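Anyone opening a protein record will find just a pair of labelled lines. With that in mind, the following record should read easily:
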Amino acid sequence: MGFDLTPTAAQHDLAKRAHEFARDCIRPEAAHYDRAQEFPWPVLEEAARRGFYSPLFYRDLIGDRTGLSLPMFMEELFWGCAGIGLAIVMPALALSAIGQAATPEQMLRWAPECFGTPGDLKLAALAISEPEGGSDVRNLRTRAVRDGDDWIIDGHKMWIGNGGIADVHVVNAVVDQELGHRGQALFVVPGGTPGLELVRKLDKLGCRASHTAELKFDGVRVPAENLLGGADKLEHKLAKVREAARDGRRSRSATLGTFEQTRPMVAAQALGIARAALEYMTAYANHREAFGAPIIDNQGIAFPIADLATRIDAARLLTWRASWMAANGVPFERGEGSMSKLAASEVAVDATERAIQTLGGWGYITDHPVEKWYRDAKLYTIFEGTSEIQRMVISTALGATEGRPPLYVDLEPSGGPLSKMFGRGTEIRTRAAAAALEMKDRVPAPLVRAAMRVLRPPR
């Protein structure tokens, strides 16, 4: 089993460039865009200029088999500001859905339209949630009906990032009423399509630099080629779902699959907020004096910070594991994606709340950014599935995998027959070590030392 947390040279450079961008371009503008609730177009332009706003950039990160490039980038970006960060990465959520469902031709057609180019930026939106559904994708009511060479979409969407202002909307809709949520499909609805209505821009508690909207689809007509995957793939999928239903088997929702793949990405965003709060309160506690000493000398201040640092690192490891699994096609059979999102989002809320408490009255006013981070962090226990939904996914997965061994036992091993015979902990190595110890007084010292060098742990 390979386990190496040392970043590659490319990952190290990516994290460094992302951190510099967050420090120099995002943080100085964060308070303004939070107060004004304006879309941060100038920051997006700079992101595009630096290569951080492009479909090829995100596809490249998603293709990293270590799985670590994307969460490293996300954490640094959202360390800067979650609202501006969401404005920058929102098209990547739509791109992820397109990447899972689209044909290669559709990918080439729509991926560039999700981002545009510097000087001619475009936006994309992933329109999943509905007023009656929220996290319950089984209760989605938007419908799509075939009409000749077109599809007609009717429905109501809520909490849609970039909704109504996007050039590309990726919309899920039920195409088979009898199959319900198992009979969904994804469609591309270009901005400005007749019947697509921006009902209102939502006035949010936090992440106020990002645009979030309520949408209605009233007889929205799109051509058949806007059905992601195409008609043949859809019919094949629906046939499998019907067969599974007849046999009493459960089939998977494509929407749920999209959520599972993006949850580690969202977890990394929450980690950026949590880390920002941890660093800020630690620095404040180191320099703020009360009763003749820095307040960090008080265990009531220091111990909660220590607990949060531990939980943030634990959540990061869960996130990296889930990202590695997604990058290598390892199914989240035990709810690993939901574990990462649950741990990261809840520690983000706790860290930002503790930061306010550490700063006291100063933390409650806008002189310091911790109150903003607190408002931003709360979103992460809600969107992409609430914490309650994550617990439901995890507990359901545990029930379904009752009696199964841990993931590392279940995974297909690497290393081949030589590793199985001579790797660390194998029976042959153990017997050889025991024999060497028994013969140490009868074997020349150089041979014993050579054997011990083979067996010693790496330095």
Observations:
- The first strand starts at residue 116 and ends at 117.
